[in-house]
């Protein structure tokens, strides 16, 4: 049986990846901060699908957390066939309204953890000439979003990083995909500003299925939902300054109403 490692697996899209992949026969390594939530998910998956589940409760925003996670996996004698970098966070407001530490933690989680885990796992995949990586980006990847500047910038990084790696390693038997969800029924969007809730609400299950189909076709990136495809194209028709200005106005309005 193959093994999938999923970060941010305690809720939302990450949790759905765990259930979908377990149903498909994958053994799992699930990573998140919440020990209790992960334990409950692991128990349920083992009963439902008879798969093996390794729980690793840690904060991936900490500097050496990705290395520690990888070492724990190696100590267990496990091989990762599919890595899903899903863990991420986003703050709302002007940059200086959040502490330097909180802003730094967001970058460490959204960028540092993705790069480190990808690097560590990719080395083994290249040796085997086989492996899959899914990085969860966002519709925010396609334009600047004032008042969520770090989040949009980090998700833009994830998209560009994934598309670049796809080209670098496509001849080594490695499939690397960035999936860009839009408005999704998750805890993140429950607390997100209305201005980024664009398009039809999608389910986490739909996002996961979209990504797995795209991975099977060896695509470098995929946008979940037809309406979101059109939304992603619109900023390319306007100047970046206009896109930023309009986005700022929408964010201000939604924060005021929220």
TrEMBL record:
Keywords: Oxidoreductase. The keyword Oxidoreductase applies. One of its GO terms (molecular function) is oxidoreductase activity. Pfam families: adh_short (PF00106). InterPro entries: NAD(P)-bd_dom_sf, Sc_DH/Rdtase_CS, SDR_fam. PROSITE patterns: ADH_SHORT. Belongs to the short-chain dehydrogenases/reductases (SDR) family. This is Short-chain dehydrogenase.
